Amino acid sequence: MNSQPPPGPFADRWFLDPTVVFLNHGSFGATPKVVLEEQTRIQRRIESEPLQFFDHRYFDELDEARRELAGFLGARSEDLAFVANATTGVNTVLRSLSLEPGDELLVTNHEYNACRNALDAVAAGTGARVVVAPIPFPLAHEDQAVETILDRFSERTRLLLVDHVTSQTGMVLPVKRLVSEAGARGVDVLVDGAHAPGMLELDLDGLGAAFYTGNCHKWVCAPKGAGFLHIREDRHEMVRPLVISHGANAASTRRSRFHLEHDWTGTRDPSAWLRVPVAIREMGQMLEGGWPELRRHNRELVLAGRKLLCDALGIEPPCPDAMIGSLASIPLPDGEGRPLHDLFPFDALQEELYDDYRIEVPVIAWPAPPKRLIRISAQLYNRAEQYAYLGSVVRKLVS
To answer: Are 346 and 391 in contact (CB under 8 A)?
Structure first.
């Protein structure tokens, strides 16, 4: 077996431990040194005179950051609100719905657990019913995903909650087709785009979804705590923030009611939001071709990594290349299942890979134990040799 390979040539831009083969950018992202330094700088500026900052500078600087993010997302800044993360965005929309007993909330079996929990809680509190579209994995074509979802629509469907990029299985779903099909049926779509910003080229205005939420701390590489919620203009009034604060009765006419409510939900550290533009610019200048080249690089690297891992395990790729961004999952032989470790289940293989081989990669129990997947990510600090190393280790451990 080959010895542990070094990280990629851009690894020195991050604080990641060089002794770890870090193939898990997808879980929490990783923020470059320059972005963290800029976050620290603004935190110090805030603390030097908190009252002056929050009373006189905060909203203007937030608007400036929002405008730059809007340009990156293909959106109007008027339709964007900052939130802590995509889970918060999903909860914000779901808690704003007016539902009646018997209404149906449609979701797939690939939905992120935290957001599925939010959906179940809202349904339980309103008498609505959660309907699950069981998209197969492996699958041969995106049409299987679309047809499975469309087959579950009914006259009682009020909302479709769907991942843009599935967290567990790493598939890019055809959300534009789904938004169009749902709209033709009079159904709003809430897109959980946790992984999409920075991984995929986005045009939220062109997509036309009623609601879209995403993270900036993953593939944009902004500080943790930077997410957004995009709400189509005709849905502004129906969505209230999770925390009602001063904006609910503010007399200001300089800002929209939408921004008055969502931009201030109590005192918090806004530095992650305000440094999203720094992350966009920093990541966009690492390669000569900018963001398009970065997205292409990461996608090609994860496809190469997926092939290496599939070859090592003697299996075929579980979904088409066209459904891959910079995240990919591969089925593993069944595991034994493990009890919860704090909030999250940890497979023995994941712990063995880290403890004995210093490989950080998630092994995910999906759709339920003993079934499991191994999920790889690709970022500029990775290189192909790391996936080959993972493949050789996994083949040894599961054969």
So the answer is: no
pLDDT at residue 1, rounded to an integer: 47
* 263's tokens: 């931009």
DSSP single-letter state for residue 161: E
DSSP secondary structure letter of residue 226 = -
- Number of neighbouring beta carbons within 10 Å of residue 136: 12
> What is the tens place of the pLDDT at every residue in 22-67?
999 999 999 999 999 999 999 999 999 999 999 999 999 999 999 9
CA distance 179 to 190: 9
- The answer to whether residues 214 and 89 touch, using CB atoms and an 8 Å cutoff, is yes
Q: At residue 371, does pLDDT exceed 50?
A: yes
The structural domains of the chain, with segments of one domain joined by +, span: 11-23+289-398, 37-282
Give the integer Cα–Cα distance in Å for 47 and 52: 10
Domain 37-282: which CATH class? alpha beta
Whose structure tokens read 């808690």? 95
Q: How far apart are the first and last CA of the chain?
A: 15
- What CATH number is given for 11-23+289-398 in this structure? 3.90.1150.10
157-163/104-108 β-pairing: parallel
Which string of DSSP letters, residue by residue, matches 118-129?
HHHHHHHHHT-E
CA distance linking residue 382 with residue 260, whole number of Å: 42
The token pair that represents 304 in the structure block: 């190469």
Give CA–CA dist 120/283, Å, rounded.
Answer: 37
Residues in the chain: 399
Residues 202-250 pLDDT 10s: 999 999 999 999 999 999 999 999 999 999 999 999 999 999 999 899 9
The percent of residues in the chain predicted with pLDDT above 70, rounded, is 97
